[in-house]
Please model this.
Amino acid sequence: MSAELFEALELLEKTKGIPVDYMLEKVEGALMSAYKKEEGSTSVRVAINREKRQLKLFRVRVVVEEVTDPKSEISLEDAQKISRRYVLGSSVEDEVKTKNFGRISAQTAKQVIVQGIREAEKSNILRDYEKKREEIISAVVIKREDATGDVVVDTGTSNALLPKSEQIPGEDLFVGDRIKVFVTEVGKADEKGPMVTLSRTHPSMVKRMFESEIPEIRDGIVLVKGISREAGSRTKIAVESRDENVDAVGACIGNRGMRIAEIVNELHGEKIDVVQFSEYAETYIAAALSPATVKEVEFDGERSAKVLVDGDQLSLAIGKEGQNVRLAAKLTGYKIDIKGVKI
Model:
């Protein structure tokens, strides 16, 4: 049984990446518990020798003057029959070689290996997801719950849930669809596996997509300075160039809009305004209200601004249901009040 056990554990290490030593600790603890349960409250020790591929169990008894529990105690007289070196308080170990132990050990080892595999696989999956926290990963929709709208996706690491609340509004996902998802949180594993929160609505998903699609951002030449998003509708992203020869906004949009088109397509047609960041609040606020043209920005408080626009730009600056000014305010951190003036 010992040789077969070591072969099985070594195969697990090669195929599953589960360390032999980790599994042997599990087997050791389980065998001790199994034997104690079978024999009663008996002290026991498991000896493991990886080089010789041996696993042995020893019953441990304490040398006493008067034996009250034969399973855990041995008289001094009987102990000295084994060896004259034993004195009161010594521990006497007898190797257990019964057929019963062979049956117990085989069953226990099998149970421990199965359970150990499950635990180790969950730990490995958890580690993989931890590496991907706040990153974008590819996934395939494998199941859709029509009642809730939630979908189950295969991320290549495991199956995970993409709740309806984290899906882009207006987007219908079907089995077989290949999508990108953002890993927002990773929690401890339960019986079903690691608790992973996926999203397609998180603002940082857009940021990560720009980092992936725009070489200048990936290389650190263009920096993302801020982002505000209403998923499925519109996003504003502020960028700044560290190289005076590189146009930050142009780099993100690309020739004929080819670069940003890839991102828009992935986000189900969501509109994206690429805004030039500025340390000057007046300039930054004016840019954030794009595509409207701003005439003047006045400050009437520490984080409050009044923006003047021509009358024909008023509705464009405010946006449908106030969305444009709302996103601009979130992007810049200023409360923005827009006033139209006659041309």
Observations:
- The two ends are 93 Å apart (CA to CA).
- The chain has a mean pLDDT of 88.
